[in-house]
Amino acid sequence: MAKGYWIGHISVTDPEKYEEYKSANAVAFSKYGGRFIVRAGNFKCVAGKARERHVVIEFDSYAKAIECHDSPEYKAASKLRDTYSENDIILIEGN
Q1: C-beta of residue 53 within 8 angstroms of C-beta of residue 10
Q2: For residue 17, what are the domain limits?
Q3: Which backbone phi and psi does 40 adopt, to 5 degrees?
Q4: What are the Cα distances from residue 19, in Å, to 13, 15, 49, 68, 74?
């Protein structure tokens, strides 16, 4: 079965408040088995435009990645996310 991933590109508008979102999203990621593969860190944009923060979260399956995103736990966290940051997020099936 193919794994599922969230890939996020983020511009944080309020770093202190963004910590609330990180605490809230941990509930959903723990419940649905999300594991951070990449969480911020140094990067080099070699084409196009980039936001200043990038994350990759791995799930056991694409279905679990979608289930987590659509869960009540993540819906609550995403309200905080959208208040304190601008985001480009995709859910993708992978190896």
Answers
A1: yes
A2: 3-94
A3: 65, -140
A4: 12, 7, 25, 20, 15
